[in-house]
Design goal:
Blueprint: E1 10-17, E2 22-28, E3 41-51, E4 54-65
Antiparallel strand pairs: 1-2, 2-3, 3-4
């Protein structure tokens, strides 16, 4: 699936466990993706349970962080 092109969007496939069928994905929607002062960015960490070629469960954590902050995955 293609990731939508947004100004400042960054993403990273963090981990894939093929035996357990778990995929972990991190995305930063870029500066000013959250309303309010300071240009905060919406950051998500998403986990998917995949088996039989289909996604059967998804969990997501959404957080705001200062724009330009590190992802922690570099």
């Amino acid at each position: 699936q293609r990731i939508p092109t947004l100004a400042g969007l960054t993403q990273r496939l963090v981990a894939v466990d093929e035996e357990m069928g778990i995929v972990l994905f991190w995305m930063n929607f870029g500066p000013n993706s959250l309303p309010g002062p300071g240009g905060r960015a919406l950051v998500t960490l998403e986990a998917f349970k995949v088996y039989g070629g289909q996604v059967h469960a998804a969990e997501a954590i959404f957080e705001g962080q200062p724009s330009g902050g590190p992802s922690g995955w570099e």
